Amino acid sequence: MKDYLLIYRMDYSAIPQGTAEQMEAMTKRWMDWIAGIAAKGRLTDRGNRLAATGKVIKGNNVVTNGPFTEIKESIGGYSMVNADSYDDAVELAKECPILAVGGNVEVREISLL
């Protein structure tokens, strides 16, 4: 098995604002999805949500507000899973709740150099 990083991206300015009950239901979907991966013994690290703001450090010690203000989508969080292959990791990601609200999941293999 190899480790894969699931990176959750979304245009957070386009997130539909729901009622408290709708937000609670979405949180439950996330928790259930992550719990399902864990129940299969495939969760390496459930990860965390990331703050919407940050800093980007470029060459010559240039520091700008971030993250990556040039793009609409921001990385909102991540998880690490283990899978037999990219296809296997992609299958796990296909059930991610962010897909239901217009976001996407980037799947990247963790490469040990």
Describe the protein's architecture and organization.
The chain has 113 residues and is α+β, with helices and mostly antiparallel strands. It has a domain at 1-14 and 43-48 and 55-113: 2-Layer Sandwich (Alpha-Beta Plaits), CATH 3.30.70. It is 25% helix and 34% strand. The chain has two helices and six strands. The protein has helices at residues 20-39, 86-93; strands at 2-10, 43-45, 54-58, 62-66, 74-83, 104-109. The strands form two sheets. A four-stranded antiparallel β-sheet has the order 2-5-1-6. Strands 3-4 form a two-stranded antiparallel ribbon. It starts with a strand and ends with a strand. The model has no long low-confidence stretch (mean pLDDT 89).
Give the structure's gist in a few sentences.
With 113 residues, the protein is of the alpha+beta class.
Strand order of the largest sheet: 2-5-1-6
**Rg calculated over all Cα atoms:** 16 Å
CATH topology of one domain: Alpha-Beta Plaits
Order of helices and strands: EHEEEEHE
Q: Indicate the mean pLDDT.
A: 89
Low-confidence stretches: none
What's the CATH H-level superfamily name of one domain? Dimeric alpha+beta barrel
Query: Helix content range of the residues, please?
Result: 10-25%
What is the first-to-last residue Cα distance?
A: 17 Å
Q: Which class of one domain in CATH terms? A: Alpha Beta
Shape: flat
Strand content: 25-35%
Q: What's the architecture of one domain in CATH terms?
A: 2-Layer Sandwich
**Record field, number of beta strands:** 6
Largest sheet: 4 strands, antiparallel
Count the DSSP helices. Answer: 2
Structural class: alpha+beta
